[in-house]
Design goal:
- This protein is an alpha/beta fold.
- Among the domains are: about 180 residues, 3-Layer(aba) Sandwich (Rossmann fold); about 90 residues, SH3 type barrels (Roll); about 160 residues, Sec63 N-terminal domain-like fold (Orthogonal Bundle), CATH 1.10.3380.30.
- Helix content is about 50%, strand content about 10%.
- Helix 3 packs antiparallel against helix 6 and helix 7 packs across helix 8.
- It starts with 14 loop residues before the first helix and ends with a helix.
Length: about 675
């Protein structure tokens, strides 16, 4: 392992210079890790621009034959779109990139050529370190920092070992070499720590899924399923963490006994006196909570009376200011409806009770066209301008005849409560109330109270971590019971319903949402291309949050748009239910692949599909494979002959061109 320099303030050596130095030192072939797809592609381009070549004429010809043979079935019109010619030029010079954004067929070819020793340098992201046989003499790490999707973070000792562990070819090299390139911010001490640490804690992220739960119940029954889950590594880790908590609980019990002795009062029972003080505090909090409940009920009632086009003034919260209601929202029960609003800043928000804790005022209405579509940036922008103009000048703002809501009511007056009056009277009459050392006793009593609360919290944690996996399983089952995938007998045994057996055959991250959409018939009226597009919404996850607003095939009121809107509503209801039971919510939906998937399934060219999108060919193929898998499962489990036919037809339409010729 060789940091090129310890000077952190200067620019590191160019990538082609590192490759050239490794060639002179006979340290090729090399895997050069760059934690960026664009960085990998740029590195290849930089090397090609310098004219560097790492292969002989015979090797270059062999590479060309392998690459052209493997890619012979790709339609000629797609080769330029895929960047085939520049990719081939890099291969023949012994240089290539390897990352998830590449066409799978290209990645497979790079892996094959590298394993044969024909490719000498591969610029790769860390995904190459996972289960791919590409033996290298040397591994290079350009930086010790990577982007984790939200921020730049240091790589862990485990990641460092996994990446550098690829250095050294079994049966060929006596030793492998790991090189860390000099770069701004490089800390030699931190690097030494990464290289020397060899013990890494394993942390299980296992949690029972809906599909897993119904299959376990069907095969093993409720109690045996819980036993199996409680024997998991994740439960072992949770149980092991209880040991230290139990030691703290023992220590707390000893301290509580000492505090009780310190607050002993000759005039009476000071714990009893402290209990009265706590009862007074609890009653005051109860009255305050009752006032909140009353105001909450008033808010729910007011929310149910809101109408589209009404302009609200919100005094606080994330949407404070003026907003206009663009959709009344669906009623969630005790929480009331969740109206969709457009803010003065042009953001579309869903209002909840938490956003309206300070109440709101309806100041009037503005005109909203019946065809208004919040998914279109231009229409959102126009309505935002109208809203700002209306609240600033009054033009276009129609006042209401009556004021629907005037804000939260005043809090309850604690002096009117007879229970609280009696408690205060009892406190005043208690013998300890007149003790000259009352304040001293009270200080010990307050410490006792605080520690007792901590002890109660500690015991609660111990209880929650003991059997935590089976408790999650029970919460998952409650969701499945409520949605009709399970039934429960009088003796407490679970039984799988027909819908539950269908769910048991859906293996996807959003398995329950797919099952809900099928059960509700949300996709029954879709043709093959529309079904593929709708399924993409529950499968696809974009790599960026700022992707442009997608166009909706068939328009905002067409069959596909209605199906997707209903899918979003089903997802919203499901996540609300999951939240109420305290389990991890089903992942967000993403409309970013709808138009591309619709075009591809209808036979459009790859160039047409990828045009005006942020998608790479590799990403598109990878998501197509996942959608194909979902469609295949849908065809196998659906009760609708039409949905089955559409799914099978969509599969045939998607399996063409670059999608058909990629094995992963």
């Amino acid at each position: 392992m060789q940091p090129a320099s310890q000077h952190t303030g200067r620019r590191g050596p160019p990538r082609f210079a590192v490759i050239d130095e490794l060639r002179r030192a006979s340290l090729l072939p090399v895997i050069y890790f760059i934690f960026s797809r664009a960085g990998c592609d740029s590195a290849v381009a930089q090397c090609l621009a310098t004219g560097i070549s790492l292969t002989t004429e015979q090797e270059a010809e062999q590479i060309r034959q392998v690459a052209e043979t493997r890619c012979a079935d790709i339609p000629a019109e797609d080769l330029s779109v895929l960047g085939f010619w520049s990719w081939l030029e890099g291969l023949t010079r012994g240089i290539a990139a390897h990352h998830a954004g590449m066409l799978p067929l290209f990645k497979e070819t790079v892996e094959d050529l590298f394993s044969r020793g024909l490719i000498k340098a591969v610029f790769a992201t860390e995904t190459l370190a996972l289960g791919i046989n590409m033996p290298a003499r040397t591994v290079v790490l350009e930086k010790l920092v990577k982007w984790d999707g939200t921020s730049h973070v240091d790589i862990t000792p485990g990641e460092y070992t996994q990446l550098t562990g690829r250095a050294g070819r079994r049966g060929i090299d006596v030793e492998g070499h790991a090189v860390v390139v000099d770069h701004p911010g490089l800390d030699p001490m931190a690097l030494a720590g990464l290289a020397s640490k060899r013990l890494y804690p394993l942390k299980s992220s296992f949690s029972p899924t809906y599909n897993m739960s119904v299959n376990l119940i069907e095969q093993r029954g409720r109690e045996r399923a819980k036993e199996i889950l409680e024997s998991s590594f994740a439960q072992f880790q949770a149980d092991r963490s209880v040991v230290s908590l139990a030691r703290r609980a023992v220590s707390n019990r000893e301290a509580l006994a000492g505090y009780e002795e310190a607050m002993t009062c000759e005039r009476g029972s000071f714990p009893e006196y402290m209990k009265l003080r706590r009862s007074i505090t609890a009653r005051e909090e109860e009255l305050a909570s009752a006032g909140k409940s009353q105001r909450r009920g008033e808010l729910v009632s007011a929310l149910s009376r809101l109408r589209r086009s009404q302009v609200l003034e919100l005094p606080s919260g994330r949407s404070a200011g003026y907003v206009v209601v663009i959709d009344r929202g669906t009623d969630t029960g005790t929480e009331g409806p969740r109206p969709v609003v457009l803010t003065e800043g042009g953001k579309v928000r869903v209002l909840t009770l938490a956003d309206l804790s300070s109440g709101f005022d309806v100041i009037g209405t503005i005109r909203i066209e019946s065809s208004f579509n919040p998914r279109r940036p231009s229409e959102r922008s126009a309505l935002t301008s109208e809203l700002r103009h209306a609240v600033a000048t009054g033009d276009g703002l129609t006042p209401l005849a009556t004021k629907p809501y005037g804000g939260p009511k005043k809090k309850s007056n604690p002096h009117d409560d007879s229970v609280l009056r009696q408690l205060r009277k009892d406190l005043k009459n208690h013998p300890c109330h007149t003790c000259p050392d009352r304040d001293e006793h009270a200080r010990w009593g307050d410490r006792w109270n605080a520690l007792e609360r901590d002890q109660a919290s500690l015991l609660s944690k111990i209880n929650s971590r003991t059997g935590s996996i089976s408790k999650t399983f029970e919460r998952v089952c409650k969701v499945l019971l409520e949605l009709g995938y399970l039934t429960v007998s009088p003796n407490g045994e679970y039984t799988i319903t027909g819908a539950g057996r269908q769910l048991g055959r859906i293996y996807a991250e959003n398995d329950l949402l797919v099952a809900q959409c099928l059960k509700a018939g949300l996709w029954d009226d879709l043709d093959p291309s529309q079904l593929a597009a709708a399924v993409s919404v529950v499968v696809y996850q974009s790599r960026r949050d700022d992707e442009p607003e997608p166009r909706m095939p068939g328009g905002p009121t067409g069959t596909l748009a209605r199906a997707i809107d209903n899918t979003v509503r089903e997802w919203s209801a499901l996540t609300d239910l999951e939240d109420s039971y305290g389990i991890k919510e089903t992942g967000d939906l993403d409309l970013g692949l709808v138009e591309a998937m619709h075009k591809w399934t209808r036979g459009r060219s790859l160039n047409s599909v990828l045009k005006d999108t942020e998608l790479t060919a590799g990403d598109f193929v990878r998501w197509c494979k996942q959608i194909l898998d979902a469609l295949d499962q849908i065809a196998n489990v659906t009760d609708s002959a039409k949905v089955r036919a559409s799914a099978l037809s969509a599969i045939d339409s998607i399996k063409r061109g670059v999608v058909a010729y990629s094995s992963v």
